[in-house]
From TrEMBL:
Phylogenetic classification of the source organism: Bacteria, Pseudomonadati, Bacteroidota, Flavobacteriia, Flavobacteriales
Pfam families reported in the protein's UniProt record: AhpC-TSA (PF00578)
SUPFAM superfamilies for the chain: Thioredoxin-like (SSF52833)
Name of this protein: TlpA disulfide reductase family protein
The species this protein was found in: Christiangramia sediminicola
Domain Thioredoxin per the UniProt entry, residue ranges: 66-215
Amino acid sequence: MRKLLLVFLFIGPTVFSQQENLQEKSFFTQKLYMHLSDYNRKADLAYRFNDYEKGQELFETFTSEHLEGSYMDNFKFQSLQKKKEVNLYDYKKPVFLITYASWCIPSKGEVPALNELAAEYKDQIDFVILFWDKKDKVKELSEKFSSDISIVYVDESKNNGAYVVRQLKHSLGLPTCFLLNENKKIMDIRRSVFPPMQTEEETAYRENYIALETSISNNLVNKYEEVYADNIQVE
């Protein structure tokens, strides 16, 4: 009896601690299920009256209060470069994930900004662009992007599962950026910068670069470097 008590004293707290961590870990699709309908109701009302500033404010409040801090569900997609099916969790570094489709093109200056950032941070971050399209169309669109960026796609006509895929596409609109740490925890969710059409190309590029680089620096790089440094010290 005394031996069992000692085992409980040493092992019990650890087990309960692990169980608590599992219970506290919430996923993107769970949070959407709980809060999306309320956000949609408020956002639809704002856009009905052309109050785009209010709509953006609602988006930022919704994502920061309910979605950031949750974990992106693992899901599968096709890799254009590897020519096979891969999982989101196959990427071991922090992930910069942005969703596109052929009917929702990148904003002016966004592609060159993404290409430059991918070149700068490729050793620390996996840049992944997810298209909702058929393979031939994705192949055509991918030519604009650097080889430092992983181009993946989901052909919904062949997607028979992955509830998260439908949620990603239909809940927050396109394009949307998700910044995930190495554990796939959502650190930031943001929409693309859309400069006015008359904005010069260089100015549009700088606006996109600054916005994206700021988000990356605040949410991914510093935290990842600190974790990496701690691991080196432990070893």
